[in-house]
Amino acid sequence: MSTKQLTLPVTGMTCANCVAAVERSAKKIPGVSQATVNFASERVTIEYDPQVADPQAVIARIEKAGYGVPTATVELPITGMTCANCANTIERRLLKTDGVLEVHVNFASEKASVTYAPGAANRVDLIAAVRRAGYDVVEAAADEEMEDVEAAARQAELHHQQHRFIIGVIFSLPLFLFSMARDLSLIGHWAHANWVNWLFWVLATPVQFYVGWDYYTGAYKSLRNGSANMDVLVAMGSSVAYLYSVAVLIALSLGTAALGDHVYFETSAVIITLIVLGKLLEARAKGRTSEAIKKLMGLQAKTARVLRDGEERDIPIAEVAAGNIILVRPGEKIPVDGVVVRGRSAVDESMITGESVPVDKTVGAAVIGATLNKQGLLHIEATKIGRETALAQIIRLVEQAQGSRAPIQRLVDQVSAYFVPAVVAFAALAFLIWLISGAGFTPALLRLTAVLVIACPCAMGLATPTSIMVGVGKGAEQGILFKNSTALEQAHKITAVVLDKTGTITKGELAVTDLVISEEVTGNSEAHSALILAASAERGSEHPLGQAIIQAAQAQGLTLSEPDRFEAIPGHGITAQVNNHQVWLGNLRLMQRENITLNGLAPKAEKLQQQGKTAMWLAVDGQAQAIIAVADVIKEGSREAVAALQKLGLKVVMMTGDNEATAKAIAQEAGIERVLAEVLPGDKAAQVKKLQEEGLVVAMVGDGINDAPALAQADVGMAIGTGTDVAMEAADVTLMRGDLRSVPQAIALSKATMRNIKQNLVWAFGYNVALLPVAAGILAPFPWAPPFLRQLHPILAAGAMAFSSISVVTNALRLRRVKI
Question: What is the 3-state secondary structure (H, E, C) of 110-122?
Fold first, then answer.
């Protein structure tokens, strides 16, 4: 058994008993043979079998015992990868580095996410490991922005590919045209002279060893690391044609045609040039998959206007400190997250939340950095700056989700590990079969070359991550943030959606819904009069029901009076004198206690109560004048969202702590059939589990705070945010808009993304399964097959290979146009 040693920092140890507890906890993990704690340095060194034990399981066990194991995660922009095997090679090399716990390398985004134990490893060690594997890491100087440096590195790589392609075309095009003209006897007999073959060699050699040099170095590094990637196939395929042609050329120059009289320099040159073209187009298309993240980064303000010593100063955004007062004029971006301390305006938050309607902001309102001030001058106190702002958190969350590995990718990774060796073996087998069958050395060699260059591991490697990148980015643009690609994949399997009532279906705040005047009082002016008296009386109260009545009066622009002799009557309501009228406002018990004449309002109050509303009786001078109904009203769009979920074929369930009558009334208004009422906060997770036991794949939608256990229990937890709440720990998906309509949108996006991934995988695998046998000559015996398929030329094989990976990326980009 080959064991590996890992040293982890441990916090929270206070005595020798803690040392023993940590050692015992670590040893409980299968595969851990030894665990030694150094109390002085607060570290544990474990010896384990990497085939059996997972370091993350050791950390989880130690943390479960009540101690902490600090870990850090770093993201490394990688250059030099050409296919999924390159990503696997880097992962293996990094995992061999001491202190590294977990690695994810994303071929599409060209980034490595590495979790490691500080003290046991650092960024320098990780970069060194990547470089030892034969690849490079983009690094920024102290005064440079990482995003700018990475963008420059990607652009330099694109220019490098363009340069190679141009050189390839300059030499390959005349070589190809001249060679074809000779083969088709379009030019004179002089073209068959040996000096023409030497000219072909002169034209092909720069393409082979300058344009194609990257494939040779890539193949060498891959083989040195004990794996085989796309570079191996391209280098072998082009070299076979080139070296055979060189051997034929030398033999003809020595006066013998023993090896044949036809050279294939144009084949090797065009193979390389076509594949470079494919890589160039692929790189451009891959750049477009990350446009969403580039848009988000472009939203960041560069400067801020702050008040310092009574003066306005424009300073770089990096110099803004928490507590600074920032001035934002109409039409300007709000530079950082903060709170309005002076002024009033409407703010366009669509770039962050996806909500198109500007949001009114007054003193005390929270504002989000990068949003646009539309109208008035605002004075804002900065509360979150730098990496703490909502925008920075969104960018970080999107990058993490785009870089994470979806479960569906595992099959591709397993196939990719064996794909290139299998193709090489298949090519050799095809060569031997055709040689033994008497077809001749040259036709057999062309079959071998075609098989090597038509194989496309790139398409398989790009099939999943490109779709994930576009899908996650599309979600971010709509204010839907997926925590990782697993959440994006899992969401398409959902069969039931559980909606928490308060703050999710409803606004979570009380509002006046009905004002019913006694039959003895008629006219709209009387309704206004009743509301004025009720709201004026409630000015002495701080009860939420009273505040709802005051807000209703203010919304109608009514002028209120100051109440006299205000008295709160516990369990009943209030009484006060307003404009020389004695006013009572409260429940039916208050009316009965004060012997108020009900004036026929009792049936109407009972009907409102049955609808889940709180009926408040208003009496004036001993006579019941009106019933004011107050309730937590459903949000705009909730009914529409429920209908959209039901249209997707999902069961919709409402869960609430309210009584059955109130719950059913709200559910009926929202269009929900199944209700779980009177559920205590601590029992919500258990209710989700019961639904799962019914065989349902459950999504739980809540506010992310009170519902945290239920969100964690659900197959997919969705937290409704408010714009500033970005990465809610318990949630798999954060809905920035606070609008329930984001839920069906998130599920529809997941379904569209998974459909796109499956299309890519069918194409990538289908392409290789179908065309590898064709390249090997399986159609040769059948006269009905087109001649170009019976003897697939290596140049056509290279063109097909280049087209394959481009088509996968292009298909992934279609997700940007999907309507959700």
Answer: CEEEEEECECCEC
Helix (H) or strand (E) holding 772: helix 742-776
Q: How far apart are CA 713 and CA 651, in angstroms?
A: 18
Q: Is 164 exposed, middle or buried (0-12, 13-18, 19+ CB in 10 A)?
A: buried
CA distance 741 to 502: 16
Which residues are CB-neighbours of 601 under 8 A, at least 6 positions away? 516, 518, 617, 624, 626, 627
With a CB cutoff of 8 Å and minimum separation 6, the contacts of 169 are: 273
Q: What is the DSSP string of 263-283?
A: --HHHHHHHHHHHHHHHHHHH
Is 704:730 a contact under the CB 8 Å cutoff?
yes
Active-site annotation holds for 658: no
Tell me, rounded to whole angstroms, the distance of Cα 394 from its chain centroid: 10
DSSP state of 334: P
* 613: DSSP letter: P
Q: Where are the alpha helices (DSSP H) in 631-717?
A: 638-647, 660-670, 684-693, 708-713
pTM: 0.79
Residues linked to residue 9 through DSSP beta bridges, in sequence order:
43
Catalytic site residue from 214, 348, 500, 703: 500
Helices in 225-356 by DSSP H: which ranges?
230-253, 265-289, 291-298, 350-353
Which residues lie across from 366 on neighbouring strands?
339
**CB contact set of 378 (below 8 Å; sequence gap of 6+):** 327, 328, 334, 340, 342, 343, 344, 345, 361, 367
pLDDT digits (tens, 9 = 90+) for 119-154: 778 889 999 999 999 899 988 765 566 666 777 777
Q: What is the pLDDT of residues 698-757, one digit of tens each?
A: 999 987 566 788 888 999 999 887 644 554 567 889 888 888 999 999 999 999 999 999
Tokens of 303: 């400067």
pLDDT recorded at residue 522: 52
> Are the C-beta atoms of 539 and 634 separated by less than 8 Å?
no
**Cβ contacts of 481 within 8 Å, gap of 6 or more:** 394, 397, 398, 401, 475, 726, 727, 733, 734, 735, 736
CA dist., res. 818 & res. 802, Å (int): 26
Side chain identity at residue 40, one-letter code: A
181-186 long-range Cβ contacts below 8 angstroms, 24+ apart: none
700 phi and psi angles, rounded to 5 deg: -110, 125
Go through the chain and tell me how many residues it has.
820
Distances (CA, A) of 43 to 23, 48, 119: 11, 16, 10
How much is the pLDDT for 524? Answer: 44
Residue 96: phi and psi, rounded to 5, are -80, -15
The CA-atom distances, in angstroms, between 506 and each of 164, 499, 615, 655, 661 are 60, 10, 18, 12, 16
The answer to whether residue 328 scores a pLDDT higher than 50 is yes
Question: Token digits for 506?
Answer: 């409803």
- The token duo for 497 is 């959606």
Q: Are 519 and 673 in contact (CB under 8 A)?
A: no
Instruction: For residue 737, give the amino acid letter.
Output: R
CA-nearest of 326, 323, 311, 308 to 379 is 326
CA distance linking residue 409 with residue 414, whole number of Å: 9
Cβ neighbour number for residue 750 with a 10 Å cutoff:
25
Number of Cα atoms under 13 Å in the Cβ half of residue 430: 28
Distance between CA atoms of residues 173 and 467, nearest Å = 35
Q: Are 473 and 601 in contact (CB under 8 A)?
A: no
The angle subtended at Cα 458 by Cα 456 and Cα 459, nearest 5°, is 80
User: C-alpha angle with apex 363: 358 to 364, nearest 5 degrees?
Assistant: 95
Q: Are the C-beta atoms of 262 and 786 separated by less than 8 Å?
A: no
Please check whether residue 378 is in contact with residue 340, taking contact to mean a CB–CB distance below 8 angstroms.
yes
**Encoding tokens for residue 301?**
């303000």
